[in-house]
Amino acid sequence: MPTPLVSLDVAPGTVVLVGGGPGDPGLITVRGLAAIQAADVIVHDRLAPLACLEHARPEAEIVPVGKVPRGHQTPQGQINAILVDRARRGLSVVRLKGGDNFVFGRGSEEWQACAAAGIPVRVIPGVTSAVAVPALAGIPVTHRSLTQGCTIVSGHVPPGDPRSTLNWEALACANTTLVILMGVTYLTEIMSALTAAGMAGQTPAAVIENGATPQMRVVQATVDTLPGVARERHIRPPAIIMIGSVVGLDLDREDLSDAAHTS
Ligand code: SAH
């Protein structure tokens, strides 16, 4: 008998935060899918891999919570209250999100809300769109001879905004691949801040829309030209913005695997 792949995470009166991966039902983890199959209640938003819900028990309660950018939003407090309420009724609750619950998306706040209410909570990590979507577009977030790191940031507020905690000047010269989530709305402001802080306008940049879905689109340009090109192509969220020399790398053609670097 092979070792079972999963031990069951869901239990009556508890909440499991499940990372669903970036849209393709094939990219959820085995453990995440097992949780969906066993749950009494599944609370999900629009970036979750909705096809996975077909694997829920027929009697499971499915609760969609709106998270449309600049559209209808279910306030975070209300989502927390749903999780706590269902768990208090003795039900097993899964909070299903796209990507990973602890990469933006306020999963850690949901954990805190459950903990504050005395509800046992655990997390099943997911494949984050921040690295999976670039990979699906053929762009590695790091490449040994080009860039030795990647920095993942949120662009949901523009540089200079009082709500921003990011140091865009530092990001402009950190020499890592920059991966920006929730950055479509303020794309122009973000690119201007980076070039104002010294990043070369010719640095390769890309936007990848609807990654891991049949509607995926990839637009490649430079830091200077990406906002205009994205506007022309009517790029909309959800999309990932990538900046750095890895964007210009053609994996099928170029051999940058310097033999001196292999160890
Ligand atoms: N927790 C999620 C991110 C939530 S924030 C994760 O780990 O992936 C929402 C942002 O994620 C979107 O605005 C977009 O920038 C990105 N995103 C999520 N799914 C995506 C997809 N399928 N294609 C492109 N970007 C995606």
Could you explain how this protein is built, in words?
- The chain has 263 residues and is α/β, with parallel strands linked by helices.
- The protein has two domains: 15-127, Tetrapyrrole methylase, N-terminal domain (Cobalt-precorrin-4 Transmethylase, domain 1, 3-Layer(aba) Sandwich); 130-248, Tetrapyrrole methylase, C-terminal domain (Methyltransferase, Cobalt-precorrin-4 Transmethylase, Domain 2, 2-Layer Sandwich).
- It is 24% helix and 19% strand.
- It contains seven helices and ten strands.
- The chain has helices at residues 30-38, 76-88, 107-116, 129-136, 168-172, 187-196, 226-232, and strands at residues 15-19, 41-44, 61-64, 93-97, 121-124, 150-154, 177-181, 204-209, 217-222, 239-243.
- The strands form two sheets. The protein has a five-stranded parallel sheet, sandwiched between helices. The protein has a five-stranded mixed sheet with strand order 6-7-10-8-9, sandwiched between helices.
- α5 links the parallel β6 (150-154) and β7 (177-181).
- The radius of gyration is 20 Å and the shape is globular.
- Mean pLDDT is 93; it is low at 259-263.
- S-adenosyl-L-homocysteine binds next to α4 and β10.
